[in-house]
Amino acid sequence: MTPLPAARRRPSARHAPAPRAGLLPTRLPHVPRRVWSAAASLCTVLLAWAAFTWVWPVVDPGRFPSPHDVYEAALQLSSGRGYAGGTLAAHVWQSSKLVLAGFFVASAIGVPLGLLMGWSRRAEALLNPTFLLLRPVPPLAWIPLAILWFGLGNGAKVFVIFFAAFVPAVINSYTGVRGVDRTLIAAARVHGASRRELVLDVLVPGALPSIFTGLRLSLQASWTTLVAAELVGALLGLGHVLTIASLDIYPGMILYAMVWVGIMGALMTGALGWIEGKVMPWRN
Question: Which single residue of 72, 93, 123, 209 has CA 20 to 30 Å from 66?
Fold first, then answer.
């Protein structure tokens, strides 16, 4: 067999020349896909904002704030002067307390109620007509009654947020139980599972994905209702900042408060997703 010419011979791996030190590829650290997605979205929004503000101003600066206006609003709200009766930390803390209180009460009542209605035909026949009657009523329609029942304190605001978060928690818990494979229920009964074991070991684990979907929707509904809830005699909170800034015609502060509503909503949704991953590790 004729040997290959020297120019066509491939060096073996043992005798291959080592790459030069300066040309070694650097391995980038692993970054989650969500981080890349969030960074890309943020960059797109910032570039579009800068373009429409400076390069192609299509909106009157008095109506839509420039980045400098938002920066000035951020300095004012974050400094000791504050705005609308408090600093950024005070407003964020107040709004977070209201949202979490309404969300937890809605979850504590709505999830068991949905599970009960999905499991028991009698409970569904008894409770479902009342739920169907209350479901179409928007959360904002409860504000007058909330003021009459709870006054102008935090109770009225928590009640409005509670009603916004209550409906998704009930519906998704009910749907989760109804979606459990009936074969699993029959198998558990054949093997002598008690009613308590059937609920805790079969129904609840099977309904968990739908339950967490409902909780995520409930949390988002809580933040979307926050501004309306804080119209009820609020002295602090991000919704209160938005209200006062609109009266003062302060677009920079309006946009900055909206950004913080989005940030806090995203952080709480991420925390709920982390809890979901711990409760259901098989879905990761």
Answer: 93
Kindly list the distances between the CA atom of residue 142 and the CA atoms of 109, 136, 138, in Å, as whole numbers in the listed order: 18, 12, 7
Would you say residue 140 has pLDDT above 80? yes
Rounded to the nearest 5°, which phi and psi values hold at 80?
-65, -25
Residue at 16 is within a domain: no
Q: How confident is the model at residue 221 (pLDDT cuts 50, 70, 90)?
A: very high
Closest CA to 97 of 139, 153, 172: 153
Residues in the chain: 284
Give 83's strand partners.
86
Whole-number pLDDT of residue 216? 94
Q: Whose CA is closest to 110, among 35, 213, 7?
A: 213
| Total domains in the fold of the chain | 1
Q: How far is CA 157 from CA 224, 230, 241, 256, 284, in A?
A: 13, 6, 15, 22, 36
Domain hosting 202: range is: 67-276
Q: Which residue has 């749907």 as its token pair?
A: 175
- Does some domain include residue 117? yes
Residue 74 buriedness (CB in 10 A; 0-12 / 13-18 / 19+): middle
Quote the CA–CA distance of 50 and 244 in Å, as a whole number.
26
Whole-angstrom Cα distance, residue 282 to residue 266? 24
Establish if 90 belongs to a structural domain.
Answer: yes
> What is the DSSP secondary structure assignment for residue 20, as one 8-state letter?
P
Amino acid at 108: A
Query: Is 48 a domain residue?
Result: no
What are 231-259's pLDDT values in tens digits? 777 889 998 999 899 898 888 899 899 99
Beta bridge partners, 86, equal 83
Residue 252: CATH number of its domain: 1.10.3720.10
Contacts of 102 (CB under 8 A, 6+ apart): 157, 158, 159, 160, 161, 162, 164, 165, 222, 229
